[in-house]
Structures are given as C-alpha cells and as structure tokens.
Amino acid sequence: MGILTWTWILVGLSFSLYIGIAIWARAGTSKEFYVAGGGVPPILNGMATAADWMSAASFISLAGIVSFTGYDGSVYLLGWTGGYVLLALLLAPYLRKFGKFTVPDFIGDRYYSNTARIVAVIAALVVSFTYVAGQMRGVGIVFSRYLEVDIDTGVYIGMAIVLFYAVLGGMKGITYTQVAQYCVLIFAFMVPAIFISIQMTGHAIPQLGFGGAGEDGVYLLDKLDGLNRELGFHEYTSGSKSMMDVFAITVALMVGTAGLPHVIVRFFTVPKVRDARKSAGWALLFITILYTTVPAVALFARTKLIETVSNKKYSELPEWVANWEKTGLLKYDDKNGDGIVQYVGDKTKNELTIDRDIMVLANPEIAQLPNWVIALVGAGGLAAALSTAAGLLLVIASSISHDLIKKVINPNITEKSELIAARLSAAVAVVIAGYFGINPPGFVAAVVALAFGLAAASFFPAIILGIFDKRMNKEGAITGMIIGLSLMILYMLKFKFGLFDGGKSAVAGLKSSWFMGISPEGFGTVAMIVNFVVSLVISRMTAAPPEEIQQIVEDIRIPSGAGDAVEH
C-alpha cells in the first residue's frame, strides 16, 4: 500500500481512539472538566503529562533544529528536561497541597487579590496562545504532507478534531486521550529511529548508533563534521552561540517549563500530594525516552539529507523531494541553470531551501523505510501536536470561565453555566489558535521557546515566592509579573518581529543590539531576574500579607502528613 493509504488507516484508527476516549470520559462536572475529578493514578498522569508537554516542538521540530544547528541545539535538550527536575522538586507537591484548579487560581488566592488573578489570567492567555500557535502549525505541516492538502486545510482539520475532544471531555477526556497519544507518539518516534540506526551503524539502540561508525568505519559525528565543512556549513559539533546566550536560553527553558500553566495543572489531577511528585518522576522517565533519542535522529537525518541531495542531478533526486516540494516547505532554485543541486552554506549560491520542521517527518522517506513507518511518523506527529494543543486550550478555557468569570465577574454563577462558559471559551480559543497556526511567527520550536520565555518572565517568580517567601505580598507579585511579562513581550516584538523599526531588528544578522548578546529565546531569563528583584523590593517596601495568608504558606511547606492531604 502507498503512503497515503497507510496514513489514512493509521491516522483514522488513532483519531477514532481519541474521539472514543473523549466520549467515554466526557466531563459531567466542573471539577472533572478542570482537573479530571482529581483521581488520576500517578503513572497514567505521568504519561499524560509527558504527552501534554512533548508537543509538536519536541516530536517534529526539536530534532530538526538540532539537525541544522548541531551543538547549539543542545540548549533545548538541556533546558526542557532540566525544567522537569525543577518542577518535580520545587513546585508540583506544594501546588497540589494548595489544592486549586489553575495557576491563576493559586496566584489569586495566595496573593489575596483579584488584580493578581487577572494579571495571571492575562499571562496564561499570552503564554498559551503563543505555545498553541506552534502546535497548530505542526498539525498543518503533518496534514499537508501526508494527506496531500495545503497547510491551511491541515490546520482546519486539526482544529475540528481538537475542538471535539477538548470541549466535550475537558481535563478528564484530555487526560485519558493523552495517555493514548503518548503511546502513539513514542512508538512513532522510536520505530524509525531504530530502523535507521540499524541501517547506518548496525546498532538497534539509536543512542549507541549516535556514537557509532558507519560501514566505512568513520564515526558518524566526524563524518557529518566533514560534510558540513566541505559544503561551507558551520561545524556540527561546535557552537556558534555565545556562552551567555546558551546559558540564558537554557535557564529560560528550564524555569519556563516549571512555570507553564498547562503542565502545572496536571499535578492537580492526582489524588494525593505524594502522587504529584510521583507523577513528575514518571513524566521525566517517559520524556527521557524521546529526548535521549533526539540527537541520534538529528544526526541520522542531517547525514542522510546531505548525502542524498548535495551535488546530485535534480532530475534524479528521489521521490520524497518532489513530495515535500508540493507542501512549499522544500524549495529548489537552480541559480546557475546546470540542473545540479548546490546545497551549500553560502546563501548566495545555495539552491535548496529546507524548512527545518520537516526533518523528522521526512527522515523515514529519506532513509527509504517502508510506507507504514512513514505513515506512522505522521500519526505520531499529530498525536504530539494535538495532545499539547488540547492541554493549552483547556488552560485558556479554565482561565476565562473559572478564574475570570466565576472568581471575578460573577461569583454566583451555577456549575452548569460555568461548564457552558468553559466550553464556549475553548471553542473561541480553537479559532484563535487556528489563525496563529495559519499565520505563525516562526518555525515550531522557536515559537514554543518564546512561550517558555513568557512563562519564565511572568509565572515562575510569583509561584516560587508564593511557596517559599511568607513576606511576599500582592503588591510585589503583581508589579513583578507585569514588568517581567512586559519586558519579554517588548523584546520579542522588537527583535523577533521588528515591530518598532520596520523589521530591521528582526534580521538574523543584526545581533549586536541584543541585550548582552541574549536572543529573544533566552531573554526570558533576564525578564525573570527583573521580576524577582522587583517583587522582592516592592514587597519589602509595602505591608506584609495578612496573617492567615502567611499561615497558608507555612502549611503548604510542612511535609508531615503531606501524603494524605487532599485539598487545603
């Protein structure tokens, strides 16, 4: 059978499974809609958390960015995995003991202020919409290639599917759907990696293949370094980023992970406080399987790509090139008219433009793997993108219906009306997310990295200080969040989108005006530090929190009997 037939079969089966689970686990109460009723077992919650967090950026784009940037791409591996350790140790159990539905709920109650709650809602919406833009673009990319439709149509299809099970099932439906999606995405990522590792190095374990040698006896990393040098690309195993930028991006991704509202809410879905920590441990284990495989996949893909296309006659290139050209994500421009593909580092001579987001999806085709494996990767990419999109949409819906409408606008709203508001909010959010998916501000991993920076700049200081500093008051937290988030947004708008100078600052080569050489992806670290400093200074210059709030902070941190605590 052909790729298209296999894709329809595998995507159809997986989507039927997701929809079936959503119908079976549909939410009947607001608690089931927001936190799945608080009864999800730790191992299942760990799988759901892994799927929720391993988005299109992890599945589709991460290996692509490492493939093109080599050593520089390691910041994403370090930051995104390190963030989970931070989350497990510093946040998960304490937030679970506080026992609220959402991050804005925690901030609103901890800082005894609806103003703080509204600021947190705005931050949650900014972070979530930035993040979900990358997911919807990922969905469009997968559909455009495997179902042979344009990217916009692919986004519309994804919107319809995620709308159905996110709006119907809420967190309860999403949780069990994400367990299934984790199984699909990890199987889809590992199978081709194992195939290609055996093909190129003889090792069945991709992590060993990464450090192995090919049939010619040359280690793959040395071989790729040589190919890159020969074609004028940056050497794969050495970095081009400044150490300051590497540090800033890594920290921003770490603390951003620990501050992401759609990840944090997963720890409110377990029965006990100790289960929150167990869930984080399981999630880290499940994530590690994919993340330790990413460098190998990136290495295999880059080596195969160069060997397949460089200095080859265009008319003799394999079918996968034409397949991806149809999507517009791969373009050939015969600048010298000789019909030979010049894939080189010199942009004035380079004739092949490749969107880095296609590398994982195209990898099985480049390696000439069976059609069912190629289609399986498409199903895995969709599982990764849709699982995270659903989690983000739920954050958006709960921020509006629970934190804004119920807690601020209309405290007397009935549960039925609140549930209707949540579902309507999710529907509107899907439409907005679809727009960003059709008009993305960059490739998937870059967009997602900006979302982590926004989370680091806004939420992380407020949550950490809310747990560990009794003296932190509403004035300090509100001021810190506003300044941190504003700084990050302004830096993004200037250097990512060139909003203030006609696009000049957004040109990749003009990095001299970056603050201390830090890119927009890493500026979340600077904004976070400013947030911390402002919060602490303002809190010490204003009145201490009420005594009952300080007592709540003491109770959150007391470990005795914590395993049996359900809700405060």
CATH architecture descriptor text of the largest domain:
Up-down Bundle
- The helical percent reads over 70%
Radius of gyration: 23 Å
CATH homology-level superfamily of the largest domain: Sodium/glucose cotransporter
Helix/strand order, N-terminal first? HHHHHHHHHHHHHHHEEHHHHHHH
CATH class of the largest domain: Mainly Alpha
State the domain count.
2
**Physical arrangement of strands within the biggest beta sheet:** 1-2
Q: Which shape, going by the Cα principal axes?
A: globular
* Poorly predicted runs: 559-568
**CATH fold naming of the largest domain:** Sodium/glucose cotransporter
Q: What does this 3D model show about the protein?
A:
This protein is 70% helix and 1% strand. It is globular, with a radius of gyration of 23 Å. It has two domains: 22-308 and 365-564, Sodium/glucose cotransporter (Up-down Bundle); 312-353, no CATH class. It has 568 residues and is an all-alpha fold. Strands 1-2 form a two-stranded antiparallel ribbon.
